[in-house]
Amino acid sequence: MQSTITVRYFAMLRDFSGKNDETVSIEAGTNAGDIYLRLAKAYGFPLALIDVRVAVNDEFTSASHPLQDHDILVFIPPVAGG
Amino acid sequence: MDHKHNDLAPIIECGIQSTPIDPIKCRQSLPALSDAGGYVCFEGLVRNINHGKSVVRLDYEVYEALAIKEMYRIANQAVSECHLRCVRCWHRSGSLGIGDTAIIIQVLARHRAEAFRGCRLVIDSIKTRVPIWKKEYYDDGTVSWSQCHEHGSEPAL
Q1: Are residues B130 and A79, on separate chains, in Cβ contact within 8 Å?
Q2: Which CATH superfamily is domain B13-141 in?
Q3: Fewest beta carbons less than 10 Å away: which of A30, A36, A70, A79?
C-alpha cells in the first residue's frame, strides 16, 4: 500500500509553494532530504537542502531521516526570531 | 515578600502570544524569590531599519509546536549552565509595528553576573534555534523574509 506524509510549509517556503500543507506519496526508504529536493525543484525554492533544518512530527531531525506513513514533515528556512 | 519558592525547582515559563506583550504586567507577575538578588529583563523591540531598508511593520510567523519545545530546551539549558532560579520568555506572533515588543525575557539568579549571562544565552539561542520567521514590510512597498545575517557580528559579552 502506498504511504503518504503531510508536508507543512512556513515562511518563504509557504510563499513559494503557495500552500499551507500538502500530502505527498513516498516509497519505502524515502528520506526527508529526498522530499526536499523534489519539492525544491517543483516550486523553485531558493534555498539548498543544507540551508534548511528538518523537523518530523514536531521534532528536529536530519535530512537523512527515513519517513514513515502519516509523518508530518516541515522544512525550516533560516529563522529570525528575537 | 513571598518566600514560598525558596528551595524549589527553578521556575520556567515560555510561550508564544498573538497579543501585545505588556512589560509592566510581566514585571508585576514576576515570581518573588527571596534567594534571587539579580534580575535581568531583555526586551527585543521592532526597529525601523533593517539591512539598510526602512521597515514600516512586520509579521512574525511561528511553528508553534516546535518553537515552544525549543524555547523550553533553551531555558532549561540556561538554568543549568548559569544556575538561574527563574526564566520566563514570551515571543510575539502576528503583526507588529515599530517599537512594539517582539520578545521579553526575564531571568532571576542569585547574583547579577549569572542573570546577565543567562539572559544573553537565552536571547542569543532563541535567535538562532527557534523556528520563528520575520516578514518585513518596507516603506518602498517591498516585502521580504528577514534572514538575520547580523547574528555573527553581535558583540560577545
Answers
A1: yes
A2: Molybdopterin biosynthesis MoaE subunit (3.90.1170.40)
A3: A70
